Amino acid sequence: MAAPAKTRWDLLITLTAAPFGSDTTTTALRLLEAVLRRGARAQVWACGFATTLTLRALEKGKPPDLLDLRASHPAPAALIGSLLSAYPETFAWQVCRFCADDRGALDHVDGVDVRSFSRFAGLLGSSGTTVYLGGA
Amino acid sequence: VGGTEPKAPTHLLVETADWGGDGKGGGFALAARVLAGAGHRVVLVLIQDAVSASTAAPASLRDVLGSGVTVLVDEFSLRQRAVAVSEVPAGAEVVGADRIAELLLADGVKVVWH
Q1: Which of residues 43-102 of B touch A (CB under 8 A)?
Q2: CA atoms within 13 A on the CB side of B54
Q3: Chain B residues whose beta carbon lies within 8 Å of the beta carbon of residue A11
């Protein structure tokens, strides 16, 4: 019997948590950064309101920190875009077209793919470990 | 703090919800103890609001700590809530995102995230 084919991705994070509703987005980004630093391959499937995280319009429009006006904190869209640039071969961020359509969220930062939900089963099959974060 | 930690846990339970009071996070306590009692390797990670359990130290967490389950507490979540590492009960280990990432990527790990 032939050995099973090696999965293409080590980790799939299915992210449905609404941004800013809890710490979940921060947790996901922290873990992704740590996973990618280890040289692993990770992909994200963003569903529900998480589809708005990577909107191009939000990339540079973050309000100032009123407690520290000189501070500069990247918006999630900018942070995800920088991870996609830093790890082009080992990181993918994919947005559910159905959820994005529903929210008028179709213009995303470079590197983000908007894909049909019908691809989701394929993502599950190509990933070693799947983690579901959130609640739509 | 510390404890014997398996390198490749069979079950990685990640709790994000508040554990004490009216919180819903304590459900993993029973699951972790039952799995460990059945001979499985179990790591319980407390992250986000679940780090409240490390300071309140409810009886359910003390039971988990005494059942052979490895309990890890996320350092970033503690810092975000101004909780000192010294408040984490003996037997639990404070870790960063790198350690949790290592566990997520372990061969054959079964992750349950709540």
Answers
A1: 47-49, 76-77, 80, 96-98, 100-102
A2: 34
A3: 104-105
